[in-house]
Amino acid sequence: MDIIVSEHVEAEFLEIVECILANSDYQKLSNYVQHKNTTRLMHSLNVAYISWKLAKKMGCDARTAARAGMLHDFCLYDFREKAEEAQVFHHPKVAARMSQERFQISEKERDAILSHMFPLGPMPTSKEAWIISFTDKMCAVTERFCIGIALSRKNRVQVAA
Ligand SMILES: [Fe+2]
Ligand SMILES: [Fe+2]
């Protein structure tokens, strides 16, 4: 799969996320629709990018914000599938487990993934985790209403099979 990112996107961000983006399992996120109008891959990339920008502005750990943003919904199944608990509580645990298995995530990254659905689920315990939780909700709203922001603006990211 070719994922072409516009030259307008900072190399510093791409360096952080490229090993995740090159992973063949991670690329399968492009097969899942998210918030009706986008894919889980595009949603995750945008959460990662905006979180990275916010973390830099706020003097936080931008690398952690970018990586946790990339991985917060790393689940290879349809969220309409039934689980032993509601998906709003279940999918962060699956994403954290998948991320641990495939990428060497830190405790801080794991906690940010697990708490991204707050207040549905645990409260974030770091500034970076708060940023992920906030950005995820903001992206969900803009995606629902087909408003292109950051990397979801036209031609910022192109995915070709
Ligand atoms: Fe999520
Ligand atoms: Fe999300």
Kindly summarize this structure in a few lines:
The protein is mainly α. The model has no long low-confidence stretch (mean pLDDT about 95). Helices cover about 55% and strands about 5% of the residues.
Strand order of the largest sheet: 1-4
Total strands: the figure is: 4
* Shape label: globular
What's the mean pLDDT score? 96
What proportion of the residues is helical, as a percent range?
40-55%
- CATH class, named Mainly Alpha
Structure description:
The protein has 161 residues and is mainly alpha-helical. The protein has a single domain (2-160), classed as Hypothetical protein af1432 (Orthogonal Bundle). The protein is 53% helix and 7% strand. The protein is built from seven helices and four strands; from the N terminus they run E-H-H-E-E-H-H-H-H-H-E. It has helices at 11-21, 24-27, 40-57, 62-71, 87-102, 107-114, 127-144; strands at 2-5, 33-34, 38-39, 157-160. The strands form two sheets. It has a two-stranded antiparallel ribbon with strand order 1-4. A two-stranded antiparallel ribbon has the order 2-3. A hairpin with a 3-residue loop joins strand 2 and strand 3. Helix 3 crosses helix 7 (127-144) and helix 5 packs antiparallel against helix 6. It is globular and about 40 Å long. It starts with a strand and ends with a strand. The mean pLDDT is 96. One fe (ii) ion binds next to helix 3. The site of one fe (ii) ion has 5 residues, from loops.
